[in-house]
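This part of the workshop introduces the protein records we will be handling. Getting from the letters to the tokens is the skill we practise here. An example says more than a description, so a record of this kind follows:
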Amino acid sequence: MIFANKEYFLLFLLLIPYIWYLYRSSKKSATMLVADTSGYSKLPKSLRQRLMWLPNALRAAMIAMLIFALARPQTSSSWGTRTAEGIDIMLAMDVSTSMTLTDLTPSRISAAKSVAAEFINNRPDDNIGLTVFAAEAFTQCPMTTDHASLLNMLRSVGTEMAESGILEDGTAIGMGLANSLSRLKDSKAKSKVVILLTDGSNNCGEISPLQAAKIAKTYGIRVYTIAAYSGKLLSVPVQVGGTIQYIHTKDQVDEKSLAQIAQMTDGKFYRATNSSQLFSIYKEIDSLEKSKVDIKKFSRKNEAYQIFALIALLLLLTEILLRQTWLRKLP
């Protein structure tokens, strides 16, 4: 909670002489004159006598609450600007239908999403975005520090994009990389990184992987490439007529091109044959250098004086009630 008019707290200085005055007045308040008071000294005090100070205390507390209300307390659910250590990162993820294969547990796409989500959670100050690609590429989420929104968009990513025709099926590694570069080329961050994950070879797209790598090098963007596949003989379901048949095949992953992309851009090439290796790869990338970025958040303040005004009113009513009834003093 913040206060918009903090200068009103100076009014608390006036409470000091007022409380002193109330204290002195309570000591002088005799209601009956007698020749000798020694007979009263040993009499026990009733609860009412012990609480005769309470109305004055309630009045002082009421004034204090009014001062808090005048100072305009405000709650803030706001955006601000702060400087944090971070880098600008684009995740480029293959969503072609081959990513449904289960040599990585529970599937290639599920393992990739799970590890990427943990990577995002471990880097709260970084600008991170997401590109998905099959035969085409598009930005699923631009770079942002709003990682809750990014994670929601990551959860909606799946191979059904290619299966349902949202994206044409295929593997356009060059297009996926180029799309990510378009988001990073104007970045002012000291470190700009693309983490590209695929399980295939480039077989379509207007830009080749090596052409995209040259563009990345021009802009000083490092590319970390990950080949996510086990290399084992796999049973792949194929629809033949009205039935599903399984054929045995091995992945055709162009590791040479992925390694060249990484080498050209001062990045690194990795091969993940299981989920634990994939986790270790992201862990290593997590140790990248960091640079300062400005994080901007929208600011909205809500007035909160009402609670203090309400408490002041209740204190005043309680004081009046006690003075006129149980704690009433005779002239």
About this structure: The mean pLDDT is 84. Residues 305-324 form the longest helix (20 residues). The chain is about 40% helix and 25% strand. The longest strand covers residues 137-144.
